[in-house]
Amino acid sequence: MNPEFLKKAEQAKPILTVRTHTKKGGQVLAETSRAVFDFGTHLVGYPKIDFSAVGAHYDAPALIRVRFCETAQELDEDTFLYHGWISKGWLQEEIVRLDELPCAYTFRRRFAVRYVQVEVIATSPKYRLRIDRVGIRSVTSAPEPIAVCGKDETERAIDRVALKTLSECMQYEFEDGPKRDMRLWLGDLRLQALANYQTYRHNDLVKRCLYLFAATADAEGHISQCVFTRPDVAPDDASMFDYSLLFIPTLYDYFTETGDRQTVDDLLPLAEKQIEIAKERFTDDVIEDCDRLGWCFLDWSLALNKQAGAQAVYLYAQKTLIRLLKECGKDASAYESDAARKSAKAVEAFYDRERGLFVSGKERQISYAANVWYVLAEVFGKDDNAALLDRLQACDEAIRPVTPYMMHHYVQALLNSGEAEKARSVIRDYWGGMIERGADTFWELFNPDDPDESPYGGKAVHSFCHAWSCTPSYFFRKYFVEEKP
Ligand code: RAM
């Protein structure tokens, strides 16, 4: 742990704004009955419920099950049937014994919630349980709400939900999702920071997160995929190839936005280290494939081969590093020659000239993930990239994005290739599709072709307020300026 970096991270720790939200109760529940309270909007915070007994003096504790749901559909999920590989510990439900009535029961855990469901498991024949009031103390480190933008109600609705998603994920760090995993992930941070620069401009929070990753890098400079901050700051024990490299553009974007040279001077050596570490995975300038889930992320499609896309992320990060070095007046020539070699090799190894698309792995798989990252890495010029994206769109067998994270990169690739109107309609269709299905905040996963798809083995643990889905607010303000508020 680097104490100097940790200190800088802690100095930038925000203060949370707390607000109180209350729903009046009055429902009287007998055993096995339940009541649902709808707060009308998504909140992140600490619930408190006031209970009392109705009937004779209570003569046994009340045993209740309380569920906290982000969406209405989640209320219908039978969580007992969830047996996926992500821990059941994330399910937002509590079994509570109320030994004394009346009482005000405060939940110690923080929840991401719109709907609160109270179900009575047991009282006694002598009394029933009355719910007098349900309250939530919501928390966020986002500054005051900001004005919504967009050219029509569809876009304004998307922007409103995106802003809400981002603000709910702004806590002591940029969290990936306030339901799960409640922590700082690098790929998520990069997109949150981009949206933040166009909206809340809480740039110290980005700085804090950059220093948290830097403080927890190991002695060789490996940056972890995510950082825990409770009870103490600690790195996860795994890294992902693409996420570690994305430290570079995250630092570059921060510098572009703030001009904070001190932070760049502190963190640039570590950014360079990411390229050195990543280089070890190449043989003759072609990245080695790997079948370990999570060696590289790109997207949550379990069928996705990551080989070609990983090389493209490397090129993208390295080119960003070159820009950063030059802007800091430093020599980047060694990186330039490496980038030229690895770009040429990528085309040789992965570009299928007949199909006009990049293919990945032994099976020569075609995916949005791989092709989009080659567009972002600018291996071809703008017009060629636009034509490549057309071919991609026409290719039925191409593996499509399943997360707003990958969809963000597709939209960015369209914009970089001069396809602003297509980019805009992707935003309207994809993010608008979540709103049509009732989203108050945007989701971790959304595959319109298969809305029940889950890489985890069940939707009960999905996060429905997931920061990497907040970037329509970035796109609208950065690229569609005429509708700026
Ligand atoms: C999930 C988290 C996070 C993401 C990683 C790769 O567990 O939701 O947002 O960055 O996967």
Brief overview, please?
The protein is of the alpha+beta class and 485 residues long. Helices cover 40% and strands 19% of the residues. It has helices at 3-11, 72-76, 153-169, 186-198, 203-215, 241-245, 247-258, 261-279, 307-327, 333-350, 368-376, 382-394, 404-416, 420-436, 472-479, and strands spanning 17-29, 34-55, 62-69, 93-98, 103-106, 111-122, 127-140, 184-185, 226-228, 234-235, 282-283, 286-287, 351-352, 357-358.
Describe the structure.
There is one protein chain. The protein is of the alpha+beta class and 485 residues long. It has 2 domains: 17-140, Galactose-binding domain-like (Jelly Rolls, Sandwich), CATH 2.60.120.260; 153-369 and 376-483, Glycosyltransferase (Alpha/alpha barrel), CATH 1.50.10.10. It contains 15 helices and 14 strands. It has helices at residues 3-11, 72-76, 153-169, 186-198, 203-215, 241-245, 247-258, 261-279, 307-327, 333-350, 368-376, 382-394, 404-416, 420-436, 472-479; strands at 17-29, 34-55, 62-69, 93-98, 103-106, 111-122, 127-140, 184-185, 226-228, 234-235, 282-283, 286-287, 351-352, 357-358. The strands form 4 sheets. Strands 1, 2, 3, 4, 5, 6 and 7 form a 7-stranded antiparallel beta sheet that branches. A hairpin with a 4-residue loop joins strand 13 (351-352) and strand 14 (357-358). Helix 13 (404-416) packs antiparallel against helix 14. The radius of gyration is 24 Å and the shape is globular. 47% of the residues are buried. The mean pLDDT is 97. Residues 176-177, 181, 185, 187-188, 297, 444, 468 line the site of alpha-L-rhamnopyranose.
